[in-house]
């Protein structure tokens, strides 16, 4: 079992991390539609600090394949387990599509728990959900945020062949911390997944993100960004890690707004089409705006050149 690092200096939220959120006009409506369709969101399961703001704008990241993950990442608040998990619900893709149609969403983000117990890791379920969404809104944009499928590249091919507009796979942290932060993951395997997506379909935008405050150095962040660009990743996100509970990985530092601005500058220098960098940034936060920002900056569709 991974040993969870503890900070010798337990810090409170710094002043720049506090913000005033507007009253969420559509938040309750979004929550009601999701609940009525019996859908799981990463917004709720991962206790995302942005969930009420996103709900107010009729935005949600749908989490497919249940609410229990087969991995034990020390930063994540999603429930974990392996034995006795239910099979895939064949009605879920249509229920997601129905909710999207009712909410009038033009941009949809799909993610999932890791289902290492399933053949192919559930890649076909992503494909089925994309197909259902295309039927209700052929012009809508779809981003998927997938696991690594344990390196099953046939499964990856299934997900890519469904032609999402954006393929996101998060690195989460720098390689030195994988053993404690992502014990069942592999840094090189995640890089390979992102490279293979671009090889399979160069027109798909690729995206990855990390959290800071887990014990990494800024030099290590720069090296990770360079590794992502070597795989032709188009979009990069970086935000502050917040510990869900005392049982999770401690916050080792709070990164300043000035340093987040430096990460953004590095990203532009390295050639990312877009970098979203800030304390509250999460991989799916304002995903539509991030994609539009990348498309505006790009003179042509993304490619492996």
Summarize, please:
With 305 residues, this protein is an alpha/beta fold. The chain has helices at 27-36, 42-45, 51-56, 92-103, 123-136, 153-161, 178-181, 187-200, 218-230, 257-270, 287-297, and strands at residues 61-64, 68-69, 79-80, 107-112, 141-145, 166-168, 205-212, 235-240, 274-277. It has a single domain (23-297), classed as Aldolase class I (TIM Barrel, Alpha-Beta Barrel).
Keywords:
305 residues; seven-stranded parallel sheet; 36% helix; 11 helices; disordered C terminus; alpha/beta; TIM Barrel; two-stranded parallel ribbon
Walkthrough of the structure:
- The chain is of the alpha/beta class and 305 residues long.
- It has helices spanning 27-36, 42-45, 51-56, 92-103, 123-136, 153-161, 178-181, 187-200, 218-230, 257-270, 287-297, and strands at 61-64, 68-69, 79-80, 107-112, 141-145, 166-168, 205-212, 235-240, 274-277.
- The strands form two sheets. A seven-stranded parallel beta sheet has the order 1-4-5-6-7-8-9, sandwiched between helices. The chain has a two-stranded parallel sheet with strand order 2-3.
- Helix 9 (218-230) links the parallel strand 7 (205-212) and strand 8.
- The relative contact order is 0.13.
- Residues 43-47 and 299-305 have low confidence and may be disordered.
